[in-house]
């Protein structure tokens, strides 16, 4: 047996497993890129990546011609080798299979829908009065003065196609659009089977709650159907198998639904995405929702973002489709303009719709303007928010003022002193502190301890036990047996008998109490990481950034996600240099999605 030395560098440990010197640099870089969320390694950029190699590998020659001759490196279609070269990219076999399966499933969706389009267009025309009623009051004015009703365009697209992507920022009405889309489908098929899912239980439950609260005219039967919808995590929808990476629902045992709606798709990694599509029959309508500008998944892949960017320009339609969609809009001011006509040949053409009007923010002021400037790295606009400039919604604090911090966390007293538990839970979400990192003085653990000390000194909490009264907690795993999910937040309060319980609000707004001892994986949630805040919204947010620019995870996507969690006001404690560096740095994950779409005919 060959001896493999124990190394502190896990990527070098992986590379050393392969007793082929020429392969080791590639194996090292592929492992390292995978830990950073990349699906593959761009071979045409190998020279740029060589500086990341350990000294022992820098002496080895990196030649793509040599790599291709290594027996452990296969080509497309060769599933016996651990590595695969395809289109000047090096993959681990597993990730190449996931990416290939993902693209093949999309191709199947697109093929299955083609012969159904005439029938579905006729179905939509028969529902024209309902559609006009549903979208009669849609507000569409945008920052760039584009009045087109993209919500209606997205709903029509979702009815017509088996594969639809609806993207948009906070408050653009993704769930409202889905509610109206479902109302159209339910009107034509009352027995429609619908599945709602998201990467986290919290996101799935929030989507179901939003659907139930969306007014759909006077038709109570559709509202009643919304109430019956049971949200689930993707893992629960697919029925995970204990101790196994596989699911009970797969290609051989697909899900039995007519429509599958997945929210927060930017959080889904390539492996889960491939297994999800594997379990959905191509004749099912699959609707993917998300914000293309938000953070990508923690694991490898940024497939939702890749899909949204694959075509280039969004919201393009053929002249015939544009006229068809416009025929449902009584108000000509809301028509899709002529500038959106195209005869694009991309496979996803007419399957991607971006909602562009935020009902929460305007693009001209405050949070809306600041968040858009971050994601576009618009330096002059970002600088316009720095002191001494003042904005009612965005407060930049470059000195990390202790008084500002204390004034913000002092508001936690509102939920602590509130006797009614349901009201206290809602007050907890009136504000939240968000951190970019976990470790260090500006990290999650230090900030939570700082908040606890402040509240303890004010005699608002008594932090002597792990589950002290009024401790806010966030779950870090799913507890299906209790109907609680990763990302759910609750508070510790005594019940009527004086026993401390963890209290949560379920998707129907009802209180749920669980003994804290059953919730072994939970964290204090006065402050939470920006990653954990995805899909949540709070009245006001305090974002605490590191005091150094040398933090690779600090990107424009991270900062955009943090800022856009706030509904009314955001405070950012961080230097101008850190903020500008974050806006300059962006998530660029290597994958073959964009170029491999040429395989789809």
What is the helix content? 25-40%
Provide the residue-averaged pLDDT. Answer: 86
For the CA atoms, what is the radius of gyration?
A: 25 Å
Beta-strand residue fraction = 15-25%
- The spatial strand order of the largest sheet comes to 7-6-8-9-5-10
The multimeric state of the shown protein is single chain
Which structural class should the secondary elements be placed in? Answer: alpha/beta
What shape does the CA trace take?
A: globular
Count of helix runs: 26
Number of strands: 20
Which stretches are low in confidence, meaning pLDDT under 50 for 5 or more residues running?
A: none
User: Could you give the distance between the termini?
Assistant: 49 Å
Main beta-sheet annotation? 6 strands, parallel
Question: Could you characterize the architecture of this molecule?
Answer:
It is built from 26 helices and 20 strands. By secondary structure, the protein is α/β, with parallel strands linked by helices. A hairpin with a 2-residue loop joins β3 (83-86) and β4 (89-92).
């Amino acid at each position: 047996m060959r001896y493999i030395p124990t190394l502190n560098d896990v990527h070098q440990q992986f590379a050393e497993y392969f007793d082929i010197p020429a392969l080791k640099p590639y194996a090292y870089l592929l492992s390292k890129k995978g830990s950073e969320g990349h699906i593959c390694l761009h071979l045409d950029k190998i020279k740029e990546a060589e500086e990341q190699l350990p000294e022992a590998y820098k002496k080895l020659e990196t030649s793509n011609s040599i790599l291709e001759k290594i027996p452990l490196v296969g080509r497309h279609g060769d599933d016996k080798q651990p590595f695969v070269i395809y289109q000047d990219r090096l993959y681990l076999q597993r990730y190449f299979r996931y990416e290939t399966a993902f693209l093949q499933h999309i191709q199947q969706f697109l093929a299955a829908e083609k012969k159904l389009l005439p029938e579905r267009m006729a179905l939509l025309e028969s529902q024209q009065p309902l559609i006009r009623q549903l979208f009669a009051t849609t507000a569409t004015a945008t920052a760039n003065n584009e009045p087109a009703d993209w919500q209606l365009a997205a709903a029509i697209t979702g009815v017509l196609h088996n594969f639809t992507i609806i993207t948009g920022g906070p408050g653009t009405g993704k769930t409202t659009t889905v509610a109206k889309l479902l109302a159209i489908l339910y009107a034509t098929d009352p027995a429609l089977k619908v599945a709602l899912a998201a990467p986290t239980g919290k996101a799935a439950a929030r989507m179901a709650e939003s659907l139930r609260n969306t007014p759909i005219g006077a038709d109570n039967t559709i509202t009643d159907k919304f109430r019956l919808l049971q949200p689930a995590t993707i893992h629960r929808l697919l029925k995970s198998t204990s101790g196994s990476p596989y699911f009970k629902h797969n290609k051989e045992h697909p899900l039995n639904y007519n429509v599958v709606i997945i929210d927060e798709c930017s959080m889904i990694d390539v492996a889960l995405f491939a297994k999800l599509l594997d379990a959905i029959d191509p004749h099912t309508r699959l609707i993917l929702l998300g914000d293309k500008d938000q953070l990508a998944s923690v694991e490898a892949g940024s497939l939702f973002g890749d899909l949204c960017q694959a075509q280039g320009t969004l919201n393009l339609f053929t002249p015939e489709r544009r006229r068809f969609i416009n025929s449902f809009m009584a108000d000509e001011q809301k028509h899709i303009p002529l500038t959106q006509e195209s005869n694009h040949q991309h496979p996803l053409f007419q399957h991607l719709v971006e909602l562009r009007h935020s009902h929460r923010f305007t693009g001209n002021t405050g949070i809306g303007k600041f968040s858009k400037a971050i994601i576009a790295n618009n330096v002059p606009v970002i600088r316009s928010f720095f002191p001494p400039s003042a904005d009612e919604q965005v407060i930049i604090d470059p000195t990390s003022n202790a008084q500002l911090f204390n004034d913000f966390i002092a508001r936690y007293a509102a939920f602590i002193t509130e006797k009614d538990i349901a009201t206290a839970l809602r007050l907890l979400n009136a504000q939240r502190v968000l951190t970019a990192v976990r470790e260090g003085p500006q990290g999650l653990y230090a900030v939570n301890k700082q908040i606890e000390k402040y509240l303890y000194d004010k005699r608002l909490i008594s932090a002597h036990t792990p589950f002290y009264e009024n401790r806010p907690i966030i779950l870090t795993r799913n507890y299906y047996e209790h109907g609680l999910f990763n990302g759910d937040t609750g508070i510790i309060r005594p019940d009527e008998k004086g026993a401390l319980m963890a209290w949560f609000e379920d998707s129907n707004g009802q209180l749920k109490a669980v003994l804290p001892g059953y919730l072994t994986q939970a964290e204090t949630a006065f402050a939470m990481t920006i990653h954990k805040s995805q899909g949540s919204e709070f009245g006001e947010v305090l974002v605490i950034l590191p005091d150094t620019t040398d933090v690779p995870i600090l990107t424009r996507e991270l900062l955009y996600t943090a800022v856009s969690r706030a509904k009314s006001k955001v405070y950012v404690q961080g230097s101008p240099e850190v903020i500008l560096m974050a806006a300059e740095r962006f998530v660029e994950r290597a994958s073959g999605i964009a170029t491999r779409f040429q395989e789809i005919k």
